[in-house]
Design brief:
Blueprint: H1 3-32, H2 38-72
Helix pairs in contact: 1-2
């Protein structure tokens, strides 16, 4: 695998983990509060969101990068 492709794949997994960890924490907390089953609900939400989110990041990040470059008038490289 080419280094750039490998970087993008690993980036998608890492970015997905960080973003989805925080977002599912906040949304689960807002929806159920600190209930006795909070941790189980949060981990279920995290697992589902991670399976969906990582492929979304992998495929949409390059488009978002290009669009951002166009909006700002810069070449994202």
């Amino acid at each position: 695998m080419q280094p750039q492709k490998k970087f993008h794949l690993v980036f998608s997994f890492v970015m997905g983990a960080m973003m989805i960890f925080l977002m599912t924490l906040v949304i689960t907390l807002v929806n159920v509060g600190l209930s006795p089953d909070f941790l189980a609900r949060w981990m279920k939400a995290f697992a589902v969101a991670y399976v969906v989110g990582v492929p979304v990041i992998f495929f949409l990040a390059p488009m978002a990068r290009k669009l951002t470059g166009r909006l700002l008038g810069v070449n994202p490289g």
